[in-house]
Design a protein that fits this description.
By secondary structure, the chain is an all-alpha fold. 71% of the residues lie in helices and 2% in strands.
């Protein structure tokens, strides 16, 4: 009909926004794979540096899409699934190929297996996360204070930040000299992803002395590292610090559980004789 106006559904329009941000993360991962696949150390590490920067941008988009979805109240089961698929590409396959072409190729087939193990661990970690995050009808539940296993973007971020920092300082981490430490780090990060160690999600922070102390320490130490070395190393430090927080809290939790079991065991065996039935 002439003169009629198309009614714009604002909610449907807002629903597209976080998903477009997620697709931007997938594009960054896809282009990073393209660069890593065609790069070689004979021509310098510029292509690897650009590939790692693309994954840093993917990290930014990954942090942004969930916050935009919560802000616009457009969280959905579809958003949960596409976000995990994006993480498999950008933080599973892309960094695995990057670390293989950049360093682990020195170990030939063994390096390929280790790189694949990192990507496979990320896929398993994301599948478990989706199962734990889905409520009735497949809708995502409210984010909890802790996440089981190291988040895939965090594990990928450590590898990516090392490539960026190495380029900034003109280092030689990609050489055969450091291939075994890089292999050990890759295996360790793969293990942390599929482990049951709990890491903070920072989505339900409470302002207490402990939280404020951690934030202040992270800010001050990052400023010192940036001033004394290169700003690119700050990302390596912050992500490593995040992993250390999770490991320290896991050890403290295990210690408390062991003390509680010992206390219960001691109470059971220290009861007075009157509490036991008489011998027959």
């Amino acid at each position: 009909m002439a003169g009629s106006r198309v009614k714009l559904d604002l909610r449907k329009t807002l629903f597209l926004l976080p998903n477009m941000i997620t697709l931007s993360s997938i594009f960054c991962g896809f282009d990073s794979i393209r660069l890593s696949g065609g790069a070689s150390l004979e021509g310098g590490d510029d292509d690897y540096y650009r590939a790692s920067l693309l994954l840093v941008y993917a990290l930014f988009f990954d942090m942004l899409d969930g916050r935009v979805a919560r802000l616009t109240k457009t969280q959905s089961a579809f958003g949960l699934q596409i976000d995990s698929l994006a993480d498999v590409v950008s933080f599973g396959i892309a960094p695995a190929l990057l670390v293989y072409k950049w360093s682990l190729f020195h170990l030939s087939t063994f390096g390929l297996v280790v790189s694949f193990a990192f990507a496979a661990a990320g896929a398993v970690r994301l599948a478990r996360f989706n199962v734990l995050s889905m409520g009735e009808g497949g809708k995502p539940q409210k984010p909890s204070k802790y996440i089981v296993g190291l988040p895939v973007p965090g594990a990928a971020g450590i590898l990516v930040s090392l490539v960026v920092a190495n380029h900034a300082v003109g280092g030689s981490l990609s050489s055969e000299r450091y291939v075994w430490p890089m292999m050990g780090l890759t295996v360790f990060l793969a293990f942390l992803q599929i482990s049951t160690i709990r890491f903070r999600s920072f989505k339900d922070l409470t302002l207490n002395a402990r939280t404020i102390g951690l934030v202040l320490f992270a800010v001050v130490s990052s400023a010192v590292i940036s001033f004394k070395t290169e700003p690119a190393i700050v990302l390596v430090w912050l992500l490593s610090f995040y992993v250390m927080i999770g490991l320290v809290e896991a050890l403290d939790h295990a210690r408390r559980r062991a003390l509680a079991k010992r206390r219960i065991h001691g109470i059971t065996h220290d009861e007075p004789p009157e509490s036991f039935p008489p011998a027959s």
